[in-house]
């Protein structure tokens, strides 16, 4: 049973600049640069028939390419930090694509995504890392100059059923060409 999610691939040029931020945070499990992505909708463990139905419905999405802006670093989890991320500007085209994916998944009978959509690229997953260590990391390494890329497609990814998920495989991609 595949574990699926829809997302945007991160171009190699941006992945390489983000990968330079790896290290310097004890307890961080750094994501491999080839696995960087912007999750639009986590789908979960799906039977093959449902996966095929999802893939065919995604073909119907008709949207234009849009700019994606990666802007700065942050952490998720507050007093119990769980990830270091590169923030992605929540532009209207990005939010509209994510909302359309959410509607499609709910029409298929999947429950609403439990988390509020906050676009980002996960750089590291954290376990038992103190908020002070994360704050120190962000103050020392947290500057990331704004980078922009054009999203000309989105992808249906699969992942292993494991902690952290990767490596991720693009099962299919959908052009943004409206």
From TrEMBL:
Name assigned to this protein: RNA 2',3'-cyclic phosphodiesterase
Keyword Ligase: yes
Placement of sequence motif HXTX 1: 37-40
GO molecular function, one term: ligase activity
Motif (HXTX 2): 120-123
Sorted UniProt keywords: Hydrolase, Ligase
Enzyme Commission code: 3.1.4.58
Active site location: 37, 120
UniProt organism field: Rhodopseudomonas faecalis
Catalysed transformations (reactions): a 3'-end 2',3'-cyclophospho-ribonucleotide-RNA + H2O = a 3'-end 2'-phospho-ribonucleotide-RNA + H(+)
Transmembrane segments: none
Described function: Hydrolyzes RNA 2',3'-cyclic phosphodiester to an RNA 2'-phosphomonoester.
Domain Phosphoesterase HXTX: 8-83, 92-165
Family: Belongs to the 2H phosphoesterase superfamily. ThpR family.
InterPro entries: Cyclic_Pdiesterase, Phosphoesterase_HXTX, RNA_CPDase
Pfam families xrefs: LigT_PEase
PANTHER family recorded: RNA 2',3'-CYCLIC PHOSPHODIESTERASE
